[in-house]
Amino acid sequence: MYRPTRIFTRRFNFRSPHRDVERLPALTDMFNRHHTYLRISLTERCNLRCTYCMPEEGVPLSPKEDILTTPEILKLATLFVNQGVTKIRLTGGEPTIRPDLFELMTGLSGLRNQGLKAIGMTSNGIALKRKLPKLLEYGLTSLNLSLDTINPFKFQILTRRKGFEKVIESLDLAESLGIQQLKVNCVVMRGVNDMEVVDFVQLSEDRNLSIRFIEYMPFDGNRWNDKKMVPYKELLAKITAAYPNISKVQDDPNDTTKHYRVAGFKGNFGFISSMTDHFCGTCNRLRITADGNIKACLFGAAEVSLRDMMRGGSSDEDLLAMISAVVKKKKPKHAAQEFIPRLTMPSSFAPLIKTPFLNKAPIFRNNQSMRSQSSDARLSHIDPSSGKAKMVDVGDKAVTKRVASAQSIITLSLAAFRQIRDPNKPYHLQDGVANKKGDVLTVAQIAGIQAAKMTSSLIPLCHPLQINKADVDFELRETGDSGEVIITATVSCQGKTGVEMEALTAASVAALTVFDMCKAVDPRAVISGIHVIRKSGGRSGSFEQNGS
Ligand code: SAM
Ligand code: SF4
């Protein structure tokens, strides 16, 4: 999910030695940014699986009791409003699936007499339509609806779920109910939906909509790469070519969007250019995660648990001191800017492309996975007394759901790569591109799935498992004078032992199959980077580390 890299949770010293710092208002940082906008995530769950946001199997969820309760959210909201927050946005996960949403809205609207001016929500629109009238009644003032395509077929590919019509119905209803601010959020990805931007702008011709194109951002496991990210200037040029008569609209001081309008159109459009032209200098946002951590920056690593403080009996003063300390530590600009040199300096990026995973620190999701990296870790397949190989006895282990994904990369010459890929089509429309031996990706996919099922016969000490599902997925990336096929294999089972080996075997054999089918054109193709990118289930817990 849209949950930026969290490396560890850090505790701050909240007594500053500097007097000046102590004199600053709690929500003002060292760069004189006043934080008047609070985004609260209501849940980690979602009813879609947008490819740019979460993996197919969803994100590892916190236990229910770790999620903030409605009274806890309201307590924090009150604290923030009393310190000057005037706008609260509810987000997620998908906020509309929180069961006590109306109760929460009632509580929040009670904060209006304490200075809260606006309550917004960002939603995917799937479960929104029925709830919308009541939400407006309870004081919802703005709605950002996420919609990345106006093609129902593509919607299903992008979100991995059905429901396009429901989103459109929510959009239509929101417009007819006359909500104060209605925006459509569209994350633009090259070769996926960038060809639709002009159609999106067209939507604003006779509708009072603000269409916002968001630059695709890197988050855990979403396989971001700079080629997929379309800089906003490129989109603006494309839109200007279709509608030469556009003009800049005056933006609000803390607006993250650069707005434009086509002459004569009722609505407008804009760009959220977090990647190529960040707006950190005027950032006035703070975030609370569903499990109660405060984050001063979407991309920031450090989080502090306000939930633990509240449940540990901390006073409002202590909470405020902590919030103030987090705000004061806010950096002048966000860390994802480190990706920017790749966009502007292709020569320095080139070595990264060959072995991209080597350049990224692994991202551990919890302490358990950190522990399994420690020096006490021992090889489970070696008998400690005899030093001989043995099969692990899993008789006493619990049967749990286990999922693992592994990745491999095969780098091919452009000639071979182009036999797999039709350069004029996005990946999801690549079917049927065949070289002399047939459709390479389909054969490699079947080979990988077969291999997953046969893992225990290939790897001597692996247990035979009843696999529930094995998937092999490909991402194609042209990188100058070569092309990469990035293979991701995901295997799940209900069992006593993990499926990492099955996923690794599937990713390896799929890569070998691509090699076999392309070797006549490129006998020097290189297979690299075979590794587990995420696993969940079992006693050793979950982890996730960056893939390509
Ligand atoms: N589920 C709700 C929704 O989709 O509107 C709210 C949560 S979602 C994480 C909030 C916004 O983040 C959505 O507009 C979504 O499109 C955007 N988003 C998610 N992943 C993104 C990414 N990798 N890059 C840019 N925007 C992203
Ligand atoms: Fe992520 Fe929102 Fe899509 Fe759900 S609907 S997967 S939270 S972007």
Report on the structure:
Residues 2-19, 337-377 and 427-432 have low confidence and may be disordered. The protein is globular, with a radius of gyration of 25 Å. Helix content is 28%, strand content 20%. It has helices spanning 19-23, 70-82, 101-109, 132-137, 152-159, 164-176, 197-202, 232-242, 306-311, 316-328, 340-344, 346-354, 367-372, 414-420, 440-453, 455-458, 500-518; strands at 37-41, 87-91, 118-123, 142-146, 181-188, 210-215, 246-248, 258-262, 268-272, 285-288, 293-295, 304-305, 400-413, 467-478, 482-495, 526-536, 543-544. Strands 7-8-9-6-5-4-3-2-1-10-11-12 form a twelve-stranded mixed β-sheet. It has a five-stranded antiparallel β-sheet with strand order 14-15-13-16-17. A hairpin with a 5-residue loop joins β8 and β9. The protein contains 17 helices and 17 strands. The protein has 548 residues and is of the alpha/beta class. Iron/sulfur cluster is lined by residues 1-2, 46, 48-50, 53-54, 92-94, 124, 146.
Topology:
Layout lengths: L18 H5 L13 E5 L28 H13 L4 E5 L9 H9 L8 E6 L8 H6 L4 E5 L5 H8 L4 H13 L4 E8 L8 H6 L7 E6 L16 H11 L3 E3 L9 E5 L5 E5 L12 E4 L4 E3 L8 E2 H6 L4 H13 L11 H5 L1 H9 L12 H6 L27 E14 H7 L19 H14 L1 H4 L8 E12 L3 E14 L4 H19 L7 E11 L6 E2 L4
Parallel strand pairs: 1-2, 1-10, 2-3, 3-4, 4-5, 5-6, 6-9
Antiparallel strand pairs: 7-8, 8-9, 10-11, 11-12, 13-15, 13-16, 14-15, 16-17
Helix pairs in contact: 2-3, 15-17
The structure holds S-adenosylmethionine (SAM) and iron/sulfur cluster (SF4).
Iron/sulfur cluster binds next to loops.
Question: What are the key terms here?
Answer:
binds S-adenosylmethionine, 548 residues, 5-stranded antiparallel β-sheet, binds iron/sulfur cluster, alpha/beta, disordered N terminus, globular
